[in-house]
Amino acid sequence: MPADALLSPTTTDLTCIPSVPASASQVAGELVLVLGPGEGEAAGVDPAAWRSAQQRLGEVSDVPVVVEQTSDAKGGRRVTAVPAASTRDEARALGGAVGRFGLTLDGRAEVVVAHPLLADAGLIEAFVEGVVLGGFRPVHVSMPAGTESGQRSAATVAEPGALPARRTMLVTGEGEGVVERAVTVARASLVARNLANTPANIATPQWMAERARAVADRRGLRVAVRDEVALADEGFGGLLAVGGGSANPPRLVELGYEPADGAAAHVVLVGKGITFDTGGISVKPAEAMAMMKTDMSGSAVVLAVIDAIAAMGLPVKVTALLPLAENAFGESSYRPGDVVTPFGGRRTVEISNTDAEGRVVMADALAYADDHLDPDVVIDVATLTGAARVALARSMAALFATDDELAGGLRAAGASSGEPLWRFPLHQPYRTFLESSVADLDNAPGKAGTITAALFLAEFVGDRRWAHLDIAGPGRSDDDTGLLSEGATGYGARALITWLEGMDR
């Protein structure tokens, strides 16, 4: 399974059928019925088994429970009882549990879902997203025996940690289009997870640039990759400073999607791409460093989003910028006290903490977007501040926006997609915290961390409509539960796709 299979995660095959199969012999492998309240008798399930299911259902709140193994004239069935769902979040949670249940079947069984929620298109979409997300397991990455370290990019082998159910059939009269859209959106989250979970000795800036080229090739996107020589020639001082201490030099990837029939607007997406973050000379403690391979989650999300919207053919022009660097320490590392000039020379930055590196590389990309791309809207995504995680924990991301309409649209998209966003203020009095005695800006003033980080980025977007998503909290999961697996979550991908879908309305 080559490395680019990370861009095509294994998921259950979701289809719609008009009615519950009468016998297990009508499907390949084991038949598992997932039935909503009151549907057991209608589906021909043994009454005693269904009564047992209902009794056990009263003992749970929001997850399905496998309750009985039956065998009757219609064939062997496992019956799973699930509670009702009336909201998108409830439907998504139920779908996640069904997806997780499918992982226990060794990739063989076919799951049939009959439930009242399948009469509503919006609930079907959310349920399908849940099935795909809950049925995901991070890949196991390895290299064949005898592979030399210099060959790691080409030799990477990725295998799923577990396989989802072979097929999941939904008993519904709704069209396949509802399911197709939901699968595409959910798979974007899985692509982002796969990329961000790849170990940093493999997922270097060059490796991520190669994955971006693979996406461009399969979707017909425009792509340009600036290496360290081009970055120096064009003055991308932030990337060169942060990536200077690593043996893996930085890259800036630019991908472009433009619909054939014209675009409603031009949106630039910028994703923080720190492929590993030691903190640099301001080194992190060991316990804080363990998950830092996922500090490129922002770039993984942005790459997954442009891949998905190109597949969907959305009528909006999108440019994706991935500023990629490894924040290591060595003889050429940038230092506290250094003064760095990001792209365009509009501001100089005093480095008071090398562990506040994400905003420094993003300054390059944001300034480049403002100077050269002429976007209608700029949105960046980053695992930027620990302060955002402290404020909001793991269940929602911090949102900053230059206007209420943009903020409202993104918040609505986040609520609909199950990725809530909480708006923080761009509180201008705090701009004074960024003042430096030796440069225009201080990269880490140490006060109001989430807000001052956003105010720092705002210095590089000019007068553009701009939004900033700080996903430091929900971008990583410590647990393997519900819709999430341990590691990167791909948070923000579904919200951004949903928001982009609304650009032509």
Describe it for me?
This protein is an alpha/beta fold. 34% of the residues lie in helices and 21% in strands. It has 2 domains: 3-180, Leucine Aminopeptidase, subunit E, domain 1, CATH 3.40.220; 222-504, Aminopeptidase. The protein starts with 12 loop residues before the first strand and ends with a helix. Helix 13 links the parallel strand 17 and strand 18. It is elongated, with a radius of gyration of 24 Å. The protein has helices spanning 47-57, 88-103, 121-134, 152-155, 176-197, 205-219, 228-234, 237-243, 286-289, 297-312, 358-373, 386-392, 404-417, 449-458, 493-501, and strands at 13-17, 31-35, 65-72, 75-81, 110-114, 139-142, 157-160, 167-171, 222-226, 251-257, 266-271, 273-277, 317-327, 339-340, 349-350, 377-382, 397-401, 421-423, 441-442, 465-470, 476-477, 487-488. Helix 5 runs antiparallel to helix 10 and helix 6 runs parallel beside helix 10. Presumably involved in the processing and regular turnover of intracellular proteins. Catalyzes the removal of unsubstituted N-terminal amino acids from various peptides. This is Probable cytosol aminopeptidase.
Write the layout of secondary structure elements.
Layout: E1 13-17, E2 31-35, H1 47-57, E3 65-72, E4 75-81, H2 88-103, E5 110-114, H3 121-134, E6 139-142, H4 152-155, E7 157-160, E8 167-171, H5 176-197, H6 205-219, E9 222-226, H7 228-234, H8 237-243, E10 251-257, E11 266-271, E12 273-277, H9 286-289, H10 297-312, E13 317-327, E14 339-340, E15 349-350, H11 358-373, E16 377-382, H12 386-392, E17 397-401, H13 404-417, E18 421-423, E19 441-442, H14 449-458, E20 465-470, E21 476-477, E22 487-488, H15 493-501
Parallel strand pairs: 1-8, 2-4, 2-5, 5-8, 11-13, 11-16, 12-13, 15-19, 16-20, 17-18
Antiparallel strand pairs: 3-4, 6-7, 9-10, 10-13, 14-15, 17-20, 21-22
